[in-house]
Write a structure and sequence with these properties.
CATH architecture of the largest domain: Sandwich
Strand content: 25-35%
Number of helices: 6
Number of domains: 4
Helix content: 10-25%
Number of strands: 37
Strand order of the largest sheet: 9-10-13-16-12-11
Oligomer: single chain
CATH superfamily of the largest domain: Immunoglobulins
Structural class: mainly beta
CATH topology of the largest domain: Immunoglobulin-like
Length: 511
Amino acid sequence: MNTKNIIMLLSVCFCILFSNQVTSRNISPLPHNLADITQYRDQIGAVYYFYVTGQETGGIWGTGIYTDDTEIAVAAVHAGLLAADQVGVIKVTIQAGQTSYSGSTAHNVTSANYNSWEGSYSVATDDGGDNPVLADPGNLTAFRDVLGGVYHFNVIADEENKGLWGSNVYSDDSALAKVAIHTGVLRLGESGTVRVVIVPEQESYIASHYNTINSSSFSAWNGSYAVSNVSGNTALIPYPGSFSLPLTGFYNLAAFRDTVGAAFHFTVTGENNTSIWGAGIYTDDSSLAVSAVHAGIIGLDQTATVKVSILAGQSSYNSSTAFGITSSTYGEWGGSYSLHTADGGNGAIPDINSALSASITSEQSFFYQITAGDHPTGFNATGLPEGLSVDSNGLISGTSKVNGHFNINLLAMNALGVDMAELSLTVGEGAEAVSTASCIFHWAEQSYPEFFSPASLETLEFAGYTYRYYSATDSYLALHTDGNIYVLIPIFGTQIINVGSINDFRALSGC
């Protein structure tokens, strides 16, 4: 393969622009409503960061060091850190109780004297530090106001008598100890640290059975959150009805009649215990388990995943005998379906096709457009870190206030259903190199699948190479620390080919 052909391999749907953001932290400041400092009294020397709106009136005792029942918003103004009604981040250090507190007047705030008190704190300008790991709050309703906020909690995984609504994104009244099991971060009874990202309110929450836990569906709710391990690389739960998470418990397909053109996957055990109507195309009240055997997709008593295409009602249905099952004829009926070997296809439900990896440094603004085929009418993205948001057209933008790795739940939808994909987003140190590699990998995978497939595999590192291996073609694509790009493609020989500099490829490919 010559250099010209390789260059042709190298449109990624995101771009990165520089901004003047202060270096990001790894854990977000706490919301103002949690600034009851008395609860931290036994943690002398501990440092916490809070979002605070300055105010000039309220209880305040002391100067420099305040009683721990002093309102933090008033102390911040008294100390000259914030003006009244100004919003900012305040650093709070837990101090021991004092034998006395001296009052004073400063910045239009007068603090009072006080005698001995059991706990104290001091305030200072935000220095970009991180909050410590917090105790399990039960649920996340108290954190609702910090959209995209990232927090760490010590949790003992538990499933008893605890509500759980959603999949990947959960209503914020869902029990964190149970969500930790559902997401696979912790096993039942296991203790560990989990990471939570606060998510905006959602119009609906999707039920699923995953890691032995059933979650429930729910309509609109005012707050949400997502959970992962501390590293942020916990794989997302597949969308129910996809190849990776087939639906179960459906006797027939009547409930899907309004989704003509869509395709769903089901786990079925073959049966021959009831009547079905049709041959190849079945009435939607026909038993799925019997039709799957009749269609030759599975055997009797065999359990497997099948793909079902939802079809319009027919004017008539033919009978036939196949694989030991005889179907019946029928006249006109309002809904139908056909059966196929499971292949991951979802019919006319949107199919997300934008890049599935991206990376930015903490000083960079981010723009990423979710794209999908099959006429999506809406988009969403959940699990975005603080500072990033998504609009109704699927544009993710902003400047992240938090470093780390985030598996973002991308959604594209139309009237027939929802497609889900996982965007691997890295924010922070080393992000620029990862971004360049991801861009080139994505372009090659999308443009030349005959060389580089399957797409969006794990990115690996070895001996200076950042590379991906493509099992379907036994090929490699790599960026090296020497500044060049290399390929090994068997149909062009067994030698590793240096195809040019990374900088040249960035300029030519838009990466």
